[in-house]
# Entry
Amino acid sequence: MGTSLPMYVNNPGVEVTLTASEAGTATKIVDSNGHGCAGVLIRGVLGAIDSAGGKVTIKIYDSATVADAIQFYSVELDHTTLETTSDTQEPGIPVLTDPHITVTGDATANTKDYSFLVYLQKISVTG
# Structure
């Protein structure tokens, strides 16, 4: 019987300035070499805001055009009292195309600096 080991995608953390409305175009998630990340399981996100206060919504889609995309994942991270917080998924959410992401802050988080890291696990089977 084969063995399967979890292999995670080494993707760089991303820093943005939050806005109060979701962008119409999502940003492609890339690995540390700048390649797309198709064939992954979304395992969650880790987010850090520059000062506690507000909530941040992170959404992951199957393509860049939000209006036409399929939404795979959505989470609201509560930074009301914590500067850093996370969400994890078990089991992961499979994404076979390159995932794209939007990050939106509520009225309190609007205009704050925000950094986040998406936890992605490669889908693999060994024999």
In short: The chain is about 0% helix and 45% strand. The mean pLDDT is 92. The two ends are 7 Å apart (CA to CA). Residues 15-122 form a domain with the Jelly Rolls fold (CATH 2.60.120).
